[in-house]
Amino acid sequence: MSLDPLLPIAPARVKALVLPIGRIKRERFNTFVDRLHAEHVVHLRDISPDGRPHRNMFSPLAFPDGAMFYELITHQTPASHLALSPFDLYREPLALIAVADGAELSSGVFANTKRMSTGRTVEETNIRGLDQELEELRDRYPKILAHQVLVFDYVAPKEKLTIPEGILVIPPAEQHRRTTMKTVMCDISALVLAEMTTLAKSYEGMSYIDSPGNPSGRPTNGPSAPGEEPTGLTRRNSQYALPTGMRSSSASGIADRSHVRMSMPPVPSKNGVFGSGGSTPNRPSTPSGSRSGLSNPPTTFDEMNGAVNGSEPTSPEQHAPARPDTAEGFRTQSQDRISVQGFGPGGLNDRWRAKGKCRVQIVLGSLYLQAGLWSTAVKELSEAATVAKSINDHVWHGKALELITISLLLLAWKGLEFQVPTILHPPPEKGSSILAQLQEVEAKYPKQPRWLRHLQVYMPDLLERVIGLYSRISAERLPPLPLSETYIRFCKILTALHVAEGELNRQTLDMMVFGALPEKPLTSSPRFNIVPNRRLIVSLLFQAFPTSSSELLTTTDRIVILSGIASVLGVLGLQRKKAMVVRELVTILIGGLVEARTRGAADVGIHPAAGLVALNGPNGHSAGALELGEGDIEHGIDAFLSLLLKTYGIVGEDSVSTALDNSDGGVLERIQRQSAARFFGMQNVKLNILRSCINLSEALPDFSGVLKYSSDLLRTAGTGVAVGPKRHGAYPAISKEEQTKLISGISKTANLSKRLGMGHLADYWDEFLLRAIKLEPLPPTRTPVQHAKSVLPDAVTARASQDVNPFIYNPFLKQPDTSAVERVLVAGETASFRMTLQNPYEIEVDVESIKLETEGAEFESAVESTVIGPFRTQILRITGTPKAAGALKITGAVIKIRGCRERRFPLFAEPWTPEDETKIKAIGLGALGLHAASPSPAVQKLKPEHVELTVIAQQPVVVVKSSTLPQSSVMILEGERQAFSVTLENLSKTTPVDFLLFSFQDSTQEALQTALNDREATAAELYEYELILAKKQALKLRNRGDGKRFIPPGQISTFDFEVLGKPGLTSGTIQVDYAHLGVPHDEIADKFYTRRVSQQLTVTVNASVDVARIDVLPLQGAIPEPLWKRTGFQEKPTASFTPDDHCLLLLDLRNSWPSNMLVELGSDDGARVEELILPGNTNRVILPIKRVYLDDPHAFIPALNPTRQRQFVVSTKISPELERANREAFWYRERILDSLKASWRATSGAERRGAVELRSMRLTSRMIEAIKIDEVDIQIEVVDPATAPSDGEYKDANNVVFVDEFFELRVRVTNRTDAPVYPMLRIMPALCHRPLNVALDFTRKFAWNGTLQQVLPMLPGKGSVEVTSGVTALCRGEFEMAASVEETRLWVPSREEEREREIKRASRTGGRPRSETETLMMDAVLGKRERRIWHSRKACRLVVRDRQ
């Protein structure tokens, strides 16, 4: 059964006062009360009847189907309620149950046990002490019918004890039977039913009963009827004998009508009477009526006479003067006086006697109802209601009808058939409508019993009649308290019918009897077709709303009434109306609690305006009304206020005690709920509600409530946004002063709670506190750089020379990826993070502690503190140290704000703003629940971020300790090489360096790389750039092959390097990538990490010897001997050294260094030239060099970079002729440079030597003609056939012949190529020393045999052919015989021949055979092949003379 005091059947319940007795703890007491409450319904068939004949008026045998309903209370009934008895007889407790803990019986003698109560054992002594306390309770509560002590968890000792009468022992719960507690409640019920007879007899002896809150209705001068009850007489339980000398003469049970808590049982005053008139009540109360509702009836005439004559009252209640604002204050002395005249017929007013008899009968009917004798109660009450109606006693008429209705409801709940009394039938004028309703209900619910159908149809009209009788304007009116409670009880009856679709069935009856809530709560959707409808119920319900003029209502009564109204509205689904009522309830609570706090503070001498801190004593104890422990705050206040806040859509959590889920999913769900609540309701109303909740919590005082609602107020006033760069819409809705007050209150309340040992803390009000976590980059010398396993020098063959070949991709020179570097930590080394915190409020936020929260590898975070300024985002630097290698994920931060709980905050980096739903899917509170449960599109976009890091194993730290270069700078000449060394030191004490790789950078590389990336650059230029990178590196390692590079922990190692002077070199960098791999290279996983240290060099390069000009000249005729000696030949060279095989190279060398320079120039054939050049002078050096024959002068210009070797770019910007010329110049220049060597040496000053840079030479077409040897060689000779030598050698001397003599002209054609040639020979004689037009006019001067032009057979590769012809000179003179060879047609090789040629070419050049595609591309670049022509390099000079 519900603990609701406003249940519809509340007048049928028996109130039992449960008090602790002896030594017992609060938790144990609550447990025992719960056991009793489980058996609060006692069926009469289970109760044993009393055997005494004068105690069987309420015998359970009279109606075994009935039941008694107990309401167990742990506090005394307020005086305002007791004043309503016997009109509301159910308000006065009829049973007292004293609960003792059997486990404490053997722990020691109870402190309040009297010395005379001694026994043989401690248990026996305590049992006797409990018996004495029971007797004191009987004296203290004499009006209560049954007094019983229950000793729970009693274990019988070895020595059997005699349990006194009035004490029941109950074994522990594990020894309980199914009927143990039921038997106990049945025994108590038997006592109550037996003593009800005495109570009923006392009321039967009364001639008149006043209505509550009204003056006496007896005649002013009429005689008193026999048996009238004087005020203050005692009524004792007649079950026990009264011991002599032990009975107290003053035994009024309601002398002090203050409300006493269960944990503070009443304490008797010095004179032995409980609650003296001077005692201070614990709760505010209103004055009672003129009489006590349970005063004992007189039993003798002397007692009545004594009371009339003003003898000393036996109850201290009569000492208290009547308040002028009550009915008692207007009573005259004659009204309190009982006259002894007028006995006998006709002496009394018949109307007054009938009214008194009717009221007594109604009180008896109420007793029958409480006793479970419902059928008897219906009979008695029906008779009384008929009389009351006839005499116009409206209030008691309504009371009788109400009790009859409750009796019928209980009969229906029990399933018993009944007949609705005639007094409950509607008036005759409503007969037709009632009949129509009966037919409609019968058609709608055909299976419903007839008696239930009639009661269902009569119910609304019946309740309306009762309300009309209670509120009718007459001499007697019902006070506000019972009238409001009646409204609420009737509304609950109608609500039960409404919830059950208007049918009186089992669900409806369970709601009325037990207060059971419906399985499916109602919503605000219209329900117009259900009778009774909600509009009728609500209009009736709000008539119970207490007005400000209701002065007789205490604060407690107002709270109970408002709570009842709110509960009915909640069941009807009218949550907003309920919230309005609850808000008024909170306002009344605040006023009452503040008044109680003020009284308690005044009692201990503290100013009433003092706050929570001032009201606590120096020893941590509270004062007066604030002396509340942790468990003294009512457990329902949290749920009560949470329901209120939820109805208004407060942005916060439902309960104070709820542990927040701070995982990513939990925070997102919380943000979703808060986002939905922000767009629900009106913000100003929410703020006012929260202010009221804070005031209520301060008045209790409830520390956790103050903290929670202050936090919720800040949260609701905020905008709930993740602030973006522009900070739009982030300002809170309350003033800065209020924000400061709230944050100050949170801090002070949390400190006080901590000092008192409670430990209450608030929840921080901004879910987006943490906005960014970023790893600060390490210094470049400590930054780990990730590499793939394939980049190791010995991972593949191509990597083995990467220290040498700059064209092999060197990943160690690449700048590390910033995003990758920022995610790598080293175990054992401290890392620094930048954390961004936001504060969208205008107050400072004191962060007591903050640390990183991580997952994965072990990580130790430092703990920092800071103060976030108002309305800003603030950056905080925090450090942490990874302890082991592995994957590490930073998921957020654990932050402790002053006054708030320490909790985890996820990371939200992106700006975010809550958005309202565009589609309306529900209304009322259903909309809030729906939107809070389903994630909105805005929340779905909100994703907590994680910072994923990689922790690598411990790594060494290497620094450059020293260098042989002073200040890391060097001055060098062009072409000079200079060596130096660098010493590296391993600072780590535990980790060695087992991997070292050197990379070099200089100032010339960037310009070269830019030139290499130029798309307009020619192949020759690219080759030149690549050659400089590959062959002329500015820096390189000298001891490259020293073996394994290793630096032990704490040791040093020295490495030698070399620098080359080259134009444009101003700076250089030696980069050392090092690591501790710990395993051989082939056992490394997919990736590894290195650190790097660099040595910066400053280089100054000065000019030395450079080439100012170059030229190539052909040799004509014999070479003079001085030339041979100058070139280093001591003797004249052999015949093979001819002008046809050599040419002259002229070099102008300039000395730019201020010292004498000795330049040495040499070629492959042994020629050497030394030249001393003075400073600033330019000297010309002449050196004969061999002419060059190339098989394929138009070959593709190669690429030194392997990545460009397969690139074939067809350029359309130059003509094929120009392309052929460029390729010829490239290849002839390369052959000349390969055959030359030049060096210089300073002969004065410091010893310096170096190489002369010859690659600056450029060949013109004239120079190429002087250098090149043609593919087809043509030799011409004129001989006398008779004297011609047979060796076949051609002489270069001038030929002398005679006029008109025959001689032989020989022409030898030699094919130097591998491909055959189809030649056609042309012989071209000409006159010497004549103009061209004259020189060719030789037909009359020279004769020949045959033709001068003839086609020769195919000349194979490397083959030769000789052509002879007879010629004669016809005149004297000098003739020149020249010849030319022209291809008659192109030779096209077969596929096999072409393949063989490519193989030979590849083997000779060291390259690879060209594919067909490459051949086609070559043709496209060089143009279509054409027939070639070759001319004789030297003509044959013929001198013709006369023989004479």
Distance between the termini: 166 Å
Regions with pLDDT < 50 over 5+ consecutive residues? Answer: 219-347, 611-634, 795-802
Largest sheet: 6 strands, mixed
Q: Please state the structural category.
A: alpha+beta
Give average pLDDT, whole number. Answer: 80
Please report which band the strand proportion falls in: under 5%, 5-15%, 15-25%, 25-35%, 35-45% or over 45%: 15-25%
The residue fraction in helices comes out at 25-40%
How many DSSP E strands?
42
Inertia-based shape: elongated
- Helical stretch tally: 31
Rg on CA atoms, Å: 61 Å
- Largest sheet, order of strands side by side? 2-3-1-4-5-6
Topology:
Blueprint: E1 13-20, H1 26-37, E2 41-43, E3 67-73, H2 79-82, E4 95-101, H3 122-140, E5 146-152, E6 167-169, H4 180-204, H5 301-308, H6 350-370, H7 374-390, H8 394-414, H9 431-444, H10 450-470, H11 480-499, H12 506-514, H13 534-541, H14 555-571, H15 575-603, H16 636-648, H17 664-678, H18 683-699, H19 703-717, H20 736-755, E7 770-775, E8 785-788, H21 818-821, E9 824-826, E10 831-839, E11 845-856, E12 859-861, E13 864-868, E14 872-882, E15 886-897, E16 903-906, H22 925-933, H23 937-941, E17 947-952, E18 958-963, E19 969-973, E20 977-986, E21 995-1002, H24 1003-1012, H25 1019-1031, E22 1035-1037, E23 1052-1060, E24 1067-1075, E25 1087-1102, E26 1105-1114, H26 1121-1126, E27 1142-1151, E28 1157-1163, E29 1168-1173, E30 1178-1186, H27 1216-1235, E31 1236-1242, E32 1249-1251, H28 1261-1267, E33 1272-1279, E34 1295-1298, E35 1302-1311, E36 1319-1327, H29 1332-1335, E37 1342-1344, E38 1349-1351, E39 1360-1369, E40 1373-1383, H30 1391-1405, H31 1412-1422, E41 1429-1431, E42 1436-1441
Parallel strand pairs: 1-3, 1-4, 4-5, 5-6, 9-17, 19-25, 34-42
Antiparallel strand pairs: 2-3, 7-10, 8-25, 10-14, 11-13, 11-15, 12-14, 15-16, 15-17, 18-20, 20-23, 21-24, 22-23, 24-25, 26-27, 27-30, 28-29, 28-31, 31-32, 33-35, 35-39, 36-38, 36-40, 37-39, 40-41, 40-42
